[in-house]
Amino acid sequence: MSVIEVLFLLLSLIAVGSALLVVTTRNMIHAALWLVVTLGSIAGIFLLLAAEFVAWVQVLIYVGAVVVLLLFALMLTKAPTGPQPDLNVARVVPAALVGLLVTGLLGTTVVAGFSGVRIDLDNAVVGSAETTGATIFEKWVLPFEVLSVLLLAALVGAIVLSRGRGESR
Amino acid sequence: MPLWWPLLLASLLFGIGVYGVLVRRNAVLVLMGVELMLNAVNINLVAFDTHFRDVLHGGQTFALFVIVIAAAEIGLALAIVLMVFRTHGHIDVDRLRSLADRDDPAELSGRSDPIGAAHPDKSGEGVR
User: Fold this and answer.
1) How far apart are CA B113 and CA A156, in angstroms?
2) If you classify domain B4-117 with CATH, what class do you get?
3) Predicted TM-score (pTM) of this structure
4) Is B34 in the A-facing interface, judged by CB distances under 8 Å?
5) Do the Cβ atoms of A127 and B60 come within 8 Å?
6) How far apart are CA A14 and CA A32, in angstroms?
7) Do B44 and B7 contact (CB within 8 A), yes or no?
8) Residue B56 near chain A (CB below 8 Å)
9) Are residues A4 and A66 in the same domain?
């Protein structure tokens, strides 16, 4: 077993364990902080899978921006900081069953479909900033521009929504 | 590395995300489950990009696009959550039943103004 495989297994363990803590912890702030651990280890997995630029974007956008936004939302909605007994719905067992079914279905499908296939990481093209930039601006320019318009629309929408209900200010 | 390792990890994270979305009552915690699901999809995209050695790098580019869309989604969703908190005083998705499908229309007559009912101190605002 190579170093990359060992590292991958370790990071996967961290990711799955902290993801489980995100959905089970009784403390909302802790859920957001465990999400940081999950997203960070996923960034490490991206690095192992030769997607360097995606990994840094993951750290910048998810760990840097999305989690901070989530923490702000928790703060602005006056989330209590202590452990809460009523964070989950009453029907935990059916929800867990659905989650297990989804995992089992997807897991058996991918394991049965790709059991003999190996990723050749030694000769993989590293998705560095140079490679990714060249690809985006040579081959994927139109989707990129459409996406920037979408971001602008989302920004305007978020501002309009949080301004309140049309009172003149 | 066997290809099914990252794929199985993605399935696990997706299932955990589904469980989180179903089981949590706080809207912000539901959004965390959605983030887990989006990240699981990204792992799939990156793994297949590396496996196929796509010349266009479609997988990694699409993973970046998914990250951008997730950022837009979280911004909008949190604006909506904050608005719900302003009008209802809580963001408990179990108790947000204003749009629920009711068999008996007479049930609605008592609560024609759910916003004002939830916030009696603000009920004079509409008169102004």
Assistant:
1) 29
2) mainly alpha
3) 0.86
4) no
5) yes
6) 15
7) yes
8) yes
9) yes
**Length of chain A (residues):** 169
CATH number of the domain bearing residue A39: 1.20.120.1200
Phi, psi values for residue B84, rounded to 5°: -60, -40
Measured from the Cβ of residue A74, the count of other Cβ atoms closer than 10 Å reads: 22
Q: Do A115 and B46 touch (CB under 8 A)?
A: no
Overall number of domains in chain A? 2
On whether residue A155 sits in a domain, the answer given is yes
Domain ranges of chain B: 4-117
3-state DSSP call for residue B2?
A: strand
| AA identity, residue B65 | F
What number of other Cβ atoms are within 10 A of residue B80's Cβ? 16
Output the tens digit of pLDDT for each of chain A's 169 residues: 789 999 999 999 999 999 999 999 999 999 999 999 999 999 999 999 999 999 999 999 998 899 999 999 999 888 888 888 888 888 889 999 999 999 999 999 999 999 888 888 888 888 888 989 999 999 999 999 999 999 999 999 999 988 866 554 4
Domain that holds residue A66: 1-83
Cα B125 to the center of its chain, rounded Å: 31
Residues contacting A40, CB < 8 A, separation 6+? A59, A63
CB contact, 8 Å: B75 with chain A?
A: yes
* Domain edge (last residue) among A67, A83, A99: A83
Write the ipTM. 0.90
Q: Two tokens at A63?
A: 């760990």
